[in-house]
């Protein structure tokens, strides 16, 4: 090392920082988080992003807040005071969201997947067809700043926040849409209203129309997979549907039980449904089960 250059600085160790769940390899599990990071790398940020991976895994990010159009965070570096990081993106206008919501509501499958907490892969194409790309289309679409002295973009503090942002999208894909200006409840309420699912009168049945070949014409290949076995094995595993999916899709009537809404009362019961019967059974039931 040249005697004219100072030794590389080391970040101050912190306790209680936000750590990336991934301890090695790539960060990001679902297609949408991987796509977000791939888009950033496509802007020529690959080498600089890698510098922040250790920061993200070491817990150097002290605080993280996501609001419509803006992410703010505090990252502990080598100096005593944490650095302030800001990542901004343009929020979609009300008119742009109206076009996107109309396109999503036109496809029953999209609404079902969103209600299940899953981001359908086709949603990126829906946004693009509406003239509003879901992910930033160019580096200029993101406005990044950090209070550190590093002029390169992104610095390792910004890169660490980008990785944690990707993992936040993994945990809740609706946070990606909230960043563009539309939160979960507002979006789902709009989709219900546009698809006529707000209120269903007694005796009415919600019907999903599916246009396909008559069964008699496809008996020979009815049970055949639509994709080769190798392709099916390579597909990512779909996240498990949340236990309260039915409550989200079909909100119960406004009935109070002991002063609590019906959804509040039913929620914990739905959470217990997938549990192991041995875990939820009483002592007598467990004993009977053991004798069997």
Defining key terms:
single chain, 292 residues, alpha+beta, 4-stranded antiparallel sheet, 13 helices
Walkthrough of the structure:
With 292 residues, this protein is an alpha+beta fold. Among the domains are: 163 residues, no CATH class; 35 residues, no CATH class. It contains 13 helices and six strands. The strands form two sheets. Strands 1-2-3-4 form a four-stranded antiparallel beta sheet. Strands 5-6 form a two-stranded antiparallel sheet. The C terminus is likely disordered.
Question: Nearest-angstrom radius of gyration?
Answer: 24 Å
Q: In one word, what is the shape?
A: globular
Order of helices and strands: HHEEEHHHEHHHHHEEHHH
Note the gap between the termini: 73 Å
Give a quick account of the main beta sheet: strands, pairing sense, barrel closure: 4 strands, antiparallel
Strand content: 5-15%
Strand line-up of the largest beta sheet: 1-2-3-4
Give the overall pLDDT as a whole number.
Answer: 78
